[in-house]
Every structure is written in C-alpha cells, then in structure tokens.
Amino acid sequence: MLNYIIRRVLQSVLVLLVVGLVAFAMFRFVGDPVDNMLGQERTMEDVERLREQLGLDQSFVVQYYRFLEGAVQGEFGISYRQGRQVSEIIAERIPATLELAAVSGVFALVLGIGLGVFTAIRRDGFASNAIMTLSLIGVSLPTFLIGILLIYLFSVELGWLPSFGRGEVVQIGGWSTGFLTQSGLMALILPSITLGLYQMTLIMRLVRSEMLEVLRQDYIRFARARGLKQRAINFRHALKNTLVPVITVTGLQLGSIIAFAIITETVFQWPGVGLLFINAIQFVDIPVMAAYLMLISVMFVGINLAVDLLYVAIDPRLRTEGKS
Amino acid sequence: MTLRFTAMATALLATTAMTAAPLDAETLRWARAAEALTQDPHAQNEGPTTTLNHQVYEPLILRNMEGAMEAALATDWQPSGDDPNVWVFTLREGVTFHEGQTFDSADAVFSLNRAMSANSNFRELLSGVVDVRATGPYTVEIETDGPNPLLPNNLTNIFMMDEGWSTENDAVEVQDYAGGEDTFSARNSNGTGPYVMSSRQADAQTVLTAFEDYWGIGEFPLSASEIVFTPIQNPATRVAALLSGEVDFIQDVPVQDLERVAGADGLGLATAPQNRVIFFGLNVGADDLERDSVDGANPLADRRVREAMDIAINREAIQQVVMRGQSAPAGVIMPPPVHGWTEELDAYPAYDVEAARALMEEAGYGEGFTIQLDCPNDRYVNDEAICQAAVGMFAQIGITVNLSALPRAQHFPLIANGETDFYLLGWGVPTYDSEYIFNFLYHTRDEGRGSWNGTGFSNAVMDEMIVGLSSEVDLAERDGMIASLWQMAEEELIYLPIHNQILNWGISDSWSTVVDADDQVKFKYFTRN
C-alpha cells in the first residue's frame, strides 16, 4: 500500500518536472521579452545587457534549473511585465478565477442534471426536443462567440448586465470576493454562463442517456408495478443510479473549467489567472508563464493523484498487489 | 426537486434587470486595450504606462494635447549664457507632491539622475547629459557633452519624483528584474500631477481622484473629479462597454466599429492623425539574402528594384480597402507633426505597375524573384492585412512574397537581430524632431545608434551628419542639414512608406477633448459639456 502510494507520488513529481522542462523548452519560441521591456529608444547595448541580466543568454536547461531552484524555495521571481513578485500576483488573481469556476461549475451541474432528467422523463415532448436541439448550439459554438453574443444581447441591447470586469469586490483577508455585492453577483452571470455552457450541455446529455438506460431497468419497472409515486421512482431510484458517471465526469471537467477560463476571462476582461496568462504570453513574461503552467500542472497532477489514491481505497486488488 | 432547481435558476436569471447605478456627475470612466505595466515612472517607456503616469506624475516640460510644449514643473528654460553646453531650468514654486512634500531642485536633480540610471527605460533620451546640478532651490542646470539645442524636447516624458519619499521607501533604483525584489515605486505613486492614484488593481480597475492641492487648479479645466480606468482587451467587449454606457471614453475604436460608435446616441468619435508612420524596411546591406530565390546576389541592393517596389504599392487602395479610410498615405517615413516634414517629402509616387515592371526588367529581374516578408500581427492597426494586400501588389511585378505574420514578441527581435530581409515597422517620434528618426532608423547600427535600422544600410556621410545634428546650435543651419539628410534618405529608398495611422477615440457626448497625436491622454484638459 505504502509502496504504491510512494510510487504514485514519485511519478507525479516526475510528470511535473517534465511539464516544466517542456515549458521552458517552448518559451524561446514565444518570443523575446527584452524588446517589450525596453522602450523604443533602446540601443543594442541595452538589449545585450538586459538579456544577460535576466539570464536569457543561457540555455533553457540552465534557465529551467534556476527556476526550479527558486520554485522549491517558494520564489517564482519578478514578473517582467509588472515588476512585482509573481507569487503575489497569482495569489491576488486566483480568487477571481476560482469564484468564476465555482459558479460555472454549479451552474453546469444544476442545470445540466435538471434538464437532463427533464428531457429523459419527457422523452418525446416538444420542450425536451427543443432543449436537445438548443443544447447542440452550446456544444458547437466557440466560447468567445457565445460570450460576445451574450454581451450584445444583455449589455448593449437590454442593458441588464455588465459587459466586463468583476464589479465591486470585497476584500476578506487575502481573498477578494464578488459574492457579497450586487454588482459583483451581476458581473458573475454572463461569464459563468459562457464558461459553463459547454459543461452544462455535456452533463445534460450524459444524465439523459444514463437516465434513459436506468429507466429501462427491471427494478424501475417493478417499482412502477408496486405503485410507487412517479416522483419517487424518478428521483430517489433512477437519478441516484445515474449520478456515479456524472460525478466522475464533473471531477474531470473541474480542471478544464479552470483551464478554459482563459478565453472567457479575455472576453469579459475578468481579472483572473487566465487573463494574466494570456497577457504573459503576449509580453513573453517568462516568470509568470512558468508559474502559471506549474500551478495548473500541480492541480491536474494533484487531482489525478487523489483519484489514484481513492482507487486504492476502493479497490482491494490494488492493495494486495502492493504486498506481493 | 430538480424541476424546482431549474425554476429557481431561471428565476435568478430573470431577476437581474439591472438598475443603472446613479453616476457621479464628474466621474469619467475610461477604457483602452492595453494596461499600464508599472507605476514606476522610469521603468517602462511605453505608451499605456506613460499615459497613466502622466495623470499622476509630471515632467518639467509637458507636451499638451495639441502637441505644443508647455511649462509644467519648469516655468522657464533657456540655454545658459556662459556655456553653450548647459541648459538652465527655472522650476515652478509652490508645487507639492500628493503626500505633501514640496517640489524643489533637489527632487528634479534626483529624478533626472534616476531616469539616467542603468535600469531606466528613458536613459537614451538623456544619453548626452553629463551632469545635472541644482544651482538654487528652484534652478537646475543640465550639462550635455556638446551643445544640445533639442534637450527640452526629450524631457516631456521624464517624470519628477520626490527624493525623500524615494529614499525612505527604498525606491531610488529603478526596477531591477534580476534582483528578485520588487520596487516600492512599481506599486505606489507619489507625484505632483493633477490626479492621485487612489486604488489600483492591474488588469482590473484603477481609480484616480483629483488632487486637491494641485498647482494648476484654475489654469486647466480639470472637469473630471474622478477617473476610473479599466483595460478591456477584447475589441468587441470594449465597444460594447462604450455602447452600453458602462464607460465614457475608449481610446481605441476598431476601424470596423467606427460607424456603429458614430451612429450611436450620446456617443461621438474624435479623430486625428497619429504620430506614427507605417512602412516596409528592405535589407539592402546583405550580400545575399537568406530567404529569397536569388543566389549569390541581393536583389534589394539594387535601387531599381526598390523603386519598382515603391511604385508597385497602391497606397490609396490600402487606405480605402484595408484601412477603411482611416489612414493618410505617406511618401516619407516621418509623421506630419515632426520637425523637418514637408509636403514635398510626403508626396507619394503614383502607382504604376507598367513602370515598375520596366524597372524590374532593367535591373535584370524581369522574371521576378521570391522573398519573405515579416510582419507583426498584433501591433499596428490591421498590420497583417496591410502585408497581405502588399503581397498581391508585389505579385503584379513578378515578386512572389511569402508572408510570415508573427506576434510582436517574435517579430521585433527579427529586426533587432538582423534576421529579416523585408519587414513591416511602425515608428512614432516622441521628440517631434527628425533627428530621432535618423538616429534610430538611418544611422549605421552600432552600440549607441541605429538600433532599429534592420536594413543593414550604412552611409558614412549620413552618419557624420546625423551625429552632427545633435550639437548644431545654429537652428537654421541644422534645418538645412535635416533637409539634405532627408534628400539623401529619399534617394536611397531603403524604406517604403505606406501611411500614417489615424487615431479614433470614442467618447460620450458629455465630454470633449482634442485628440493627442501621441495617443497620450491628459485628463486635466478634458472638459465636461
């Protein structure tokens, strides 16, 4: 058991190291930050000097080693773009992204399950056919287009919702939240829908097909024969049995909600880590790009590691394998 | 249960009819694509950063929005009577910083020295300065390595900081990226400007409030008591924010949305030529081009080929089709407000494919050749589209152009490293003088000058004249030198001018302003209608 855990943890660390190495190997293709950092009046001498100062004249392996050296001490360096500590910038930005991801996740889950059950129960109704057709749009339209369409409808034409930003935020310790003000809540609506629409349709279609499958099972038929209320059958017996795959998918999608947030954040000027990353790429802000990529890979690797460890808890076969 | 959930969610969506928040009558909400990078006044010489700092900090001499130099923290500046290498500045008295300190000559000397330090982005503007000294509480002398008639032009973006504040807060040094520590001044501001930075979250919102003890109260309109700045990168969102009334002023209206903004109720466009010219650079210096089809020779080294390319560009078509009218075709790589500009220089050659083909034939390239054009795709207005249009135009005279469009972070290093044969570049002239163009674009590339000359062009006579410009005190003589330099430059034709950009600001009818040719907003001049 312990053996297995140690092996998984070591594998995860290896994955992280490889991700970092690949990232640093790619940074040179993103461009040269020096040109952005020095103004129009720079001389060739300035360019050389700064390149040397930043260690950009070194090979990417050396640069990567220096990054790791700092990273293990919790030092991610200074952002080339903002001249501030990277760790501080990321800590400042992450609440915006996590709040957006949480609201979109809840939106996707609640509406996805609700509509999925509805369309499964009223399989041939007009409303469920309409929902199924509309859901195709959610799957097929690109995120930025949905965002811009929502902005034009709800901000420009109707004037109901803000088109950009987080509204007013309240600072609680190191965490800035938009949940406590009216403008903060309003500002969450359009970006959350934009970000969660794809996941919502995915969950909805998943719930629907699982539900249709379950409703054909014998125990549902027997339950009906026994005269149980339709409601109890649908929700207490059928829905519960469809939720296992839904939970698995939701867990996996949580990571991609945070990753997909990049596009949504750019469209809505949402000041989260996704926007930070896009700007870092445009500026070739290597310290921020490196820290962000490491953060995201730690997150994905962490989720996977947790899942793997859960399997050990659930599946006794893995435990015996460890012993032999 | 689930149905109830659905109903609740729908209800939540429906109850969001937003009541427009009551607006402070004097709040001006401003948005533009780019965010300022830092609050440190000497760390980044870059448009959006300087623009934001212009509200908070002030230079000795300010270029106002009409483009004229105006007294700011210096009330008077004269060359010294005793020494032709010295400029004497009389400083404004009774100026206080936002935190209450008094501005005097010690602060000016400190700030100028800071702007000349190794990590400052502004040091090249002050490269000839050998000494800055205070000769009285409100007089400062700047000594240069030779007579420098245009020194005041270079000071319009050099901001003044308080010496005591900088020393106390360990902000004497400009941001040193390698040091691993951030500088206090990158996140805190203490200027003498009309607005105080009261809160700032980068990429989200910056709030500026009017400075109560500003020296210019009564002199300038100062109509906005509060300015809320939000960068909005996505052009569609930015225009939507203006149309929906969430912002009052956007600095960059995309050309495809101009009619929409102009036609909207309560909104207007303010338009003016920008101090930025767009042109192609040709590698004339290499013996053989790496990315062309001609072996052992450089077709661009032949002036006839360059001239053929020049007249093969249909500048009016680019203006009408690519730019939707929002550009002014150019015949010289110098924006009109720059000293040295004349109408004759800016006259562009007629588009003439027949003559261009004849020139190609004469140069021995009647069969044409293949070449690579490097073009940025996120820097100038419709930059990639301009290049695409040019590809078609050059094809008509037999030149097959392979277009390589890259983001700015990858494009500009090609020019810096001399890895391009043919490229697009835009150039603005913050000093409003031709010398700036010659220094960076025509002088032979060496450690000090010619850093943006990616053409490999080198002309010893021109180099000598360019160096001479900086110390020529006889202004009439100097103008003569500029004119003959331009004549030589036009003769060489190492750059093919395309057009000058036009700025379009979208603004609510409640406010009025003139458009600054450098795209640098100075809110103290804004008036409320």
Automatic annotation (TrEMBL), chain A:
- Give the CDD domains listed for this entry: TM_PBP2 (cd06261)
Q: How does it sit in the membrane?
A: Multi-pass membrane protein
Q: Does the keyword Membrane apply?
A: yes
Listed transmembrane segments: 12-30, 100-121, 133-154, 185-207, 243-270, 290-314
Native species of this protein? Rhodophyticola porphyridii
Where is the signal peptide, in residue numbers?
A: none
Q: Where is the ABC transmembrane type-1 domain?
A: 94-311
Annotated InterPro entries = BPD_transp_1_N, MetI-like, MetI-like_sf
Top-rank taxon of the source lineage equals Bacteria
Record-linked PANTHER family: ABC TRANSPORTER PERMEASE PROTEIN, DIPEPTIDE TRANSPORT SYSTEM PERMEASE PROTEIN DPPB-RELATED
Q: Name one GO cellular component term.
A: plasma membrane
Q: Which GO terms describe its biological process?
A: transmembrane transport
What is the name of the protein in this document? ABC transporter permease
Q: Which UniProt keywords apply?
A: Cell membrane, Membrane, Transmembrane, Transmembrane helix, Transport
Localization in the cell? Cell membrane
